[in-house]
Amino acid sequence: MQVQTRHTPAFGVARIVLAQGEAVQADADTMIASSFGVTESRPSRGAAPSVFTAPTGGGWLDLAPKHPGDVYPLEFDGSVGWSVAVGAMLARPATLRRDHPWPALQALFGGDIGFLEHFSGSGQLVLACRGAVDALTIEAGEVVTVRPGYLVAYPDGIQVRLRALDPSGPQSVRTGEGLAVDFAGPGTVLVQGRK
Questions:
Q1: Whose CB among 4, 78, 151, 169 lies 3.0–4.6 Å from 15's, allowing a Cys bridge?
Q2: Which DSSP state fits 150?
Q3: Domain 2-192 in CATH 3.40.640.10
């Protein structure tokens, strides 16, 4: 699978180029167009994404997020997983898996379902972001605070702490309302320009 992006960062479109028989999972409502012969199989129940498969000779499909913003291909090398904002996945190949439950996120959210999900494997996970994506490089000994609404993704191995902005105010681990995420370096955190 190869990913080509255009019209970024305001109105990103991702062209997913697939080899013969290769497949990618994406929400059916995000597909703009495809080369002839790309097939779509939809799940029989629920709101699970569709699977698009390339015919003999390969093919492509163009995907666009449901909101304005950047599309960002995040490369996985098989050695490090990433925690990603729920709803940020635009497309993923079968070589990447959603890890549910993920122990580090269970510890962060106290066993509840939170505003992050974990992916691992190898390949490119295409993310749909609001606004431009910015990579914050955090040095060893440095601590950076990010509001959950702006958080896109961070890799395994970076130190993370979730805390209340105001202990007496409303908070939600499902949405991130009233919370802040502290990251201690070294590492890289992806954030988006709009929430």
A1: 4
A2: G
A3: no
